[in-house]
UniProtKB/TrEMBL annotation:
Family of this protein: Belongs to the aldehyde dehydrogenase family.
Bilayer-crossing regions: none
Active-site residues from the entry: 267
GO CC field: mitochondrial matrix
Signal sequence extent: none
Name this protein carries in UniProt: aldehyde dehydrogenase (NAD(+))
Reaction catalysis annotation: an aldehyde + NAD(+) + H2O = a carboxylate + NADH + 2 H(+)
Chief site of localization: mitochondrion
Enzyme class: oxidoreductase
GO biological process, one term: carboxylic acid metabolic process
Every Aldehyde dehydrogenase domain range: 29-490
Species for this entry: Arachis duranensis (Wild peanut)
General function of this protein: Possesses activity on acetaldehyde and glycolaldehyde in vitro.
GO terms of molecular function: aldehyde dehydrogenase (NAD+) activity
Length: 497
């Protein structure tokens, strides 16, 4: 059985950890304090490596390097075509090192290796090729002003970008942040999540091999309240981009405001509805709703974590959703055919089990799962609740784990009202064959992404971001460039006075 298999020795990853230091001014260096912190293998809770722990004085050094690279270095001034070629070379190197990057990603994060190697690293490469494509397509405008003036806008890089990323998609979050910032000619100080520092350090080294000038991309590993807060409140950081929880989003927005009013992009939490309409093919709906929730161990900000099912198909849906969860293959993420690995760490693991207990206590029906799996590491049984009510904690708060909550609805107006009755507004799934139903829902849902008969489609060109407390601004696509550009209006009389 799965539980027995989890007692076996974990599979040894086919990669060495080469980089554990901070990357500042093009060089790997220790933290000034000499401190390190352990990064853990979520399969066992054992130490993979000790990583340099950046504090505010290291953030100062990294920002100084980024400042110098922006003010005096070649990067913002080189031709767009040269910048594009460096990004394309970096993408080639990332592609060449697909398997090492995938192994580091899985080792540090716990996600299935096949998902890393076949989906996420190829997406990473695709993202950087996409952004390389933008580097030489950033145009200003000419503006028809009143009077005899020639007026133009220059779209200039904003300067030093501070970027803070989470642990659920370490490399993809790295790409969503670094891609547009570099395409626009900015320099960067990026703080990885303390749970997953390894893969992005390796990727950053490849950018330097590709010819990125020193100081353009600086990497600081460390914790939120120290390194993260130092970056968010730094007087010499010109722009902040953050992905993480809504609570921490509020903190960094305040730090940015209290320091130098740097503009902030936020990509925060969600409690996304997945709406299964009465005309749905139930088997297909079950499969997609399962994917929408359980993908990446349920650790997605946009997870379809409120599965609303029309009363006409509800009983059949619940039966089949339970059967699908029971079939989910959980195990060592380095094994082939595994659908679900361990959760990221003990804190998230405990939090998920607490939400499961709260679901049971509040009267939801536990259809399957509900407990840990195995005796070591952070594996959680795929869990399904039916008879969930909107007011229960499991229907209101972000669980960030493999826990599906199924709710019943009667008609469209009702489900629109209930789906929108949340402070979040990140994404929604709609499953129907009826075009009128699809159109009604897509326009009524107050969310940044509606996936109709699909979910988690994340092409580089599709903008992503939240309404309401799910965030501010958009990442990916053309919209993301705005985050990293300043607009300068240049006004010249047509004739000298
Ligand atoms: P999670 O609870 O999922 O770990 P967080 O929002 O706490 O989400 O973490 C996302 C990122 O924000 C991580 O890189 C983390 O280190 C960082 N972070 C956490 N607290 C702070 C803070 N007070 N200031 C700046 N960054 C922070």
């Amino acid at each position: 059985s799965t539980a027995t298999a989890l007692e076996e020795e974990p599979i040894k990853p086919a990669v060495q950890v080469e980089h554990t230091q901070l990357l500042i001014g093009g060089k790997f260096v220790d933290a000034l304090s000499g401190k390190t912190f352990p990064t853990l293998d979520p399969r066992t809770g054992e130490v993979i490596a000790h990583v340099a722990e950046g504090h505010s004085e290291d953030v100062d050094r990294a920002v100084a390097a980024a400042r110098k690279a922006f003010d005096q270095g070649p990067w913002p001034k080189m031709t767009a075509y040269e910048r594009q070629r460096i990004l394309l070379r970096a993408a080639d190197l990332l592609e060449k090192h697909n398997d090492e990057l995938a192994a580091l990603e899985t080792w540090d994060n716990g996600k299935p290796y096949e998902q890393s190697a076949q989906i996420e690293i190829p997406m990473l490469v695709r993202l950087f090729r996409y952004y390389a494509g933008w580097a030489d397509k950033i145009h200003g405008m000419t503006v028809p002003a009143d009077g005899q003036y020639h007026v133009q806008t220059l779209h200039e890089p904003i300067g030093v970008a501070g970027q803070i990323i989470p642990w659920n998609f370490p490399l993809l979050m790295f790409a969503w942040k670094v891609g547009p910032a570099l395409a626009c000619g900015n320099t960067i100080v990026l703080k990885t999540a303390e749970q997953t520092p390894l893969s992005a350090l390796y990727a950053a080294k490849l950018f330097h091999e590709a010819g990125l000038p020193e100081g353009v991309l600086n990497m600081v590993s460390g914790f939120g309240p120290t390194a993260g807060a130092a970056l968010a409140s730094h007087m010499d950081v010109d722009k902040l981009a953050f992905t993480g929880s809504t609570d921490t989003g509020k903190v960094v927005l305040e730090l940015a405001a209290r320091s130098n009013l740097k503009p902030v992009t936020l990509e925060l939490g969600g409690k996304s509805p997945f709406i299964v309409c009465e005309d749905a093919d139930v088997d297909q709906a079950v499969e997609l709703a399962h994917f929408a929730l359980f993908f990446n161990q349920g650790q997605c900000c946009c997870a379809g974590s409120r599965t609303y099912v029309h009363e006409r198909v509800y009983d059949e849906f619940v039966e089949k959703a339970k059967a699908r969860a029971l079939k989910r293959i959980v195990g060592d993420p380095f094994k082939s055919g595994i659908e679900q690995g361990p959760q990221i760490d003990s804190e998230q693991f405990e939090k998920i089990l607490k939400y499961i207990r709260s679901g049971v206590q509040s009267g939801a029906t536990l259809e399957t799962g509900g407990d840990r799996l195995g005796s070591k590491g952070f594996y959680v049984q795929p869990t399904v609740f039916s008879n969930v009510e909107d007011g229960m904690l499991i229907a209101k708060e972000e669980i960030f784990g493999p826990v599906q909550s199924i709710l019943k609805f009667k008609d469209l107006d009702e489900v629109i009202e209930r789906a929108n009755n949340t402070r979040y507004g990140l994404a929604a799934g709609v499953f129907t064959k009826n075009i009128d139903t699809a159109n009604t829902l897509t326009r009524a849902l107050r969310v940044g992404t509606v996936w109709v008969n699909c979910f988690d489609t994340f092409d580089a060109a599709i903008p992503f971001g939240g309404y309401k407390m799910s965030g501010q601004g958009r990442e990916k696509g053309e919209y993301s460039l705005k985050n990293y550009l300043q607009v300068k209006a240049v006004v010249t009389p047509l004739k000298n006075p």
